[in-house]
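Q&A log
Question type: sequence-to-structure
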Amino acid sequence: MKTIEEQILELKKQHGAVILAHNYQLDEVQAIADFTGDSLELSRKAANLSEDVVVFCGVHFMAETAAILSPDKTILIPDPNAGCPMADMVTAEQLRAVKAEHPGAKVVCYVNSSAEVKAESDICCTSSNAVKVCESLGNEQIIFVPDRNLGSFVAEKLNRKIVLYNGFCPTHERIRDVDVIAMKQKYPGAVVMAHPECSKPVRDLADELLSTGQMCHYAQASEKTEFIVATELGINYRLRNENPGKKFYPANPDRAVCPNMKKITLEKVLWSLQGMKERVTVPPDIAERAVGCIQRMLEI
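Response status: OK
Response body:
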């Protein structure tokens, strides 16, 4: 009897497929993936892959972004119900209403948004390049959607006013400043790495504000051996694997779990490859407008 992992590898070879996994995925899903990374890393990878089939282990907007960038490829998501609450907080109609209140403003949309929202935006960003993207717009007025926390982080870094949409990541909101303070007291020598999706009280306690990909690079390069990690728990699998001599302490090990990121299992990856489903597509009229928004980000 072949293991699930062996069956996945066979089907992957048979279909000429590649498996991408976000840093928040289950440990075993990250282990079977060809590439793991944050949104920017996976967006770039999906755009440059030679494989015709991409199994995207993440949430729906990520697979949607890959489908926009590679319309001729088959983009599969093992669980189509793996959504993003933050992305669902803003619709194209709601964004149009905000744009009407600020005529002439440039819209920067976080990659954690739907294709329809991207189609209404001027440029996309991720947590790792949001500051650079907004900086590229010069003195233009900026509307930032949907994450108020990442947007306020950018405003602080650039020392400028930004119109912030009132969206947020429920998982990062569950990480509290008291959690970080307690961990700092327990591990006084540890570096606090926090995701910019965290609330301002948590961000103010951090030594480093980093995307998940940046956390991985920072931990590898740092001479420090202890880290408090204020983001979704899934990142700790990669951090520990890549840094066996270092210790990583989740800021909130009980509550910082994204249920949507945990919906994809090895069984679902197998079923996805067996039935070549669920395929993610974007209507051509929306994709045509959204692709420019994404490409402008990738060019920066």
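Response note: The chain has three domains: 4-83+261-281, 86-167, 171-250.
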